[in-house]
Design goal:
By secondary structure, this protein is an alpha/beta fold. Helices cover 32% and strands 20% of the residues. It is built from eleven helices and 15 strands. The strands form three sheets. Strands 3-4-2-1-5-9-10-8 form an eight-stranded mixed sheet, with helices on both faces. Strands 12-11-13-14-15 form a five-stranded mixed sheet. α2 crosses α4 and α7 packs parallel to α8. The chain starts with 7 loop residues before the first helix and ends with a strand.
Length: 375
């Protein structure tokens, strides 16, 4: 009997030395909102086994807000930010204590890392976070990461921990990302409805064309859904990190043989920390609209963007800010650090370099400060 063919992506995640594992709220809590010790211990059993096999593990864990609901007498996840922050304040302690005790069964030390989007957007904070993770892992600790819900505002939230996990995976130089939830794989539609087809392997963007992904979790305890997991998987894989999306109930198999769930092959090359930050982590302050020739030069030939290829400018930005580069069809094709203020550009767009005043004969976005995005 012929053995089943194991994809390169599954071999990569199974053998990865440094991994990031994300688990959602619904996989750790009861329907009433409290932590489920049995579920949490089962997850830690799988993570500890991976540590014992020689891997370094970073855990991105949701569940703080959900864990704080019952102690505060809240029957459901609140909608207002202040109540969410209050629940997170209570729940974060409960969650950290539970992880410390559970990992302690294997003599593993846990370090808590709370991040806001600001910590990833600002370059100095980004480098500081890198150093902290590096030192924790070198000392044999398991970093447990969550969004700092107690201080995050609407303006600086990641939105969901799936995106946070993808950003952390690149930040720590992970060899693989695991997204564990209450759904066992990626499906073409809602798996609870007839006709949904299970997708086992994703080797490129065309494999997920037409996938109808939900935007909220089934339990109502989390903020993510399959849409956020798919977006996170595509973000990580396009930056050179293979991804396994699987059910938290299959964590032991996912973290050992990786023969469950959906495997996403790495479709792009690994970016430097700066280029990843530029392309995916920081906020854009404006947009430059490009003609077809400029898109071909920037994306296809990795050339600098010149004024002649720009057809329009949106936003209020200064030289040194990050902007999006947009095609004629409205697609964001790249991001880069702009060399002009938004007030300067309208008089330059569409003009050849030799027609500009000498002091303005420079790139609008230099190739070294430009990152084409996966299309």
């Amino acid at each position: 009997m012929t053995a089943p063919v194991v994809s390169h992506a599954r071999r990569a995640v199974a053998s990865a030395n440094r991994i990031v594992v994300k688990v959602g709220s619904s996989s750790l809590t009861t329907a009433e909102g409290g932590l489920d010790p049995a579920r949490l211990d089962s997850l830690v059993d799988a993570l500890a086994a991976r540590c014992s096999a020689g891997s370094q593990v970073v855990l991105v864990s949701s569940g703080a807000i959900a864990a704080g609901l019952a102690p505060l007498g809240l029957s459901r996840r609140p909608r207002d930010l202040a109540s969410q922050q209050a629940a997170a304040s209570v729940g974060q302690l409960t969650l950290a204590h539970a992880y410390a005790n559970s990992f302690g069964r294997y003599s593993l030390t846990v370090g808590q890392v709370l991040l806001t989007a600001d910590d990833v957007v600002r370059r100095a904070h980004y480098r500081n976070a890198q150093r902290t993770f590096s030192r924790l892992l070198a000392l044999g600790a398991v970093p447990v990461v969550n969004e700092n819900d107690t201080v995050a505002t609407d303006e600086i939230r990641f939105g969901d921990n799936d995106r946070l996990a993808a950003l952390v995976a690149h930040l720590v130089g992970a060899d693989a990302l695991f997204l564990l939830s209450d759904v066992d794989a990626l499906y073409s539609g809602d798996p609870r409805k007839p006709g949904a087809v299970r997708i086992s392997e994703v080797s490129g963007a065309s494999d997920v064309d037409g996938v109808q992904a939900g935007t909220s979790g089934a339990s109502g305890l989390g903020t993510g859904g399959m849409a956020s997991k798919l977006a996170a998987a595509r973000l990580a894989s396009s930056a050179g990190i293979p991804v396994l999306l699987a059910g938290a109930s299959d964590a032991l198999r996912a973290l050992s043989t990786a023969d469950v769930g959906t495997a996403f092959a790495a479709t792009g090359s690994r970016l430097t920390a700066r280029r990843f930050w530029l392309g995916y982590a920081t906020d854009a302050n404006g947009r430059l609209h490009l003609d077809d020739g400029a898109v071909a030069a920037v994306v296809g030939r990795r050339r600098s963007l010149l004024a002649a290829g720009i057809t329009g400018v949106d936003g209020d930005f200064e030289a040194g800010d990050v902007v999006e580069l947009v095609s004629h069809a409205g697609e964001v094709v790249a991001r880069g650090v702009v060399c002009y203020d938004s007030a300067e550009l309208p008089s330059l767009i569409g003009r050849k370099t030799h027609d500009l005043p000498e002091e303005q004969r420079r790139e609008v976005v230099h190739a070294d400060d430009l990152v084409p995005l996966a299309r």
